[in-house]
Amino acid sequence: AQFKSWPRVSAQWIDWVNRLQPRFGDQWKSQGLWSLIELSKVGIPKQSLLFDCLIRFWSPANNAFLFAWGPMSLTLYDIYLFTGLPLIGPDSPYLIDDPAAPKLAPLRYCYPSYQTVVKQYEDSPEDPTETEHIMFLWVLIGQYVFCPISGNPSTEYLPMACSLSTGKVYNLAAMLLGSFYRGMNSCVANNPLSKLGGWLGSCKYGHRPIFPNYFHFLPLLVLCLRSC
To answer: Domain named Aminotransferase-like plant mobile: which ranges (predicted)?
Structure first.
């Protein structure tokens, strides 16, 4: 269920990027969005089996993988190297107060998927508008920065899309890292057995990882075996 928000590249999305790029490409570069938009045109397959193995070592208390040799986790520097997203500016999508941002009219209906947003601008004969750019940015940050677990567009990120359309720079790297932590923690919270499996699997191969925040999930018998 956690993979519902995994982005799927489509020809319609690539066409939409190419349609808007001549007019807004320079703005994307100045805002640090260019690399992320280019990455969005490349399909990245999800490694479900590898994820199932790694999640067993994730610690929500530390926001890191706890291996026998020590903790390991993504950092802001890693996010910047992967995506080129900016490391400056406001870092909370919920505290946006930008009076210069355009006021988007209320959406007529709730979009069931990102693809439906993309399709409404497919084969549009008109020149790109500011409203279309806002919708594009909404899909971009929803799919590739915030990644709601539902896998559907969320209107709570529309104010940020409106503000981004004016050229304002946000600390999207920190927001993406926070989304990664939230997603990992949600996976662990919804699959308590992953904690037990990770600990037992490590012991099987002679490792002694430390999971201080997992002990309240382990059965008493397992704790007794560990102490022995």
So the answer is: 32-186
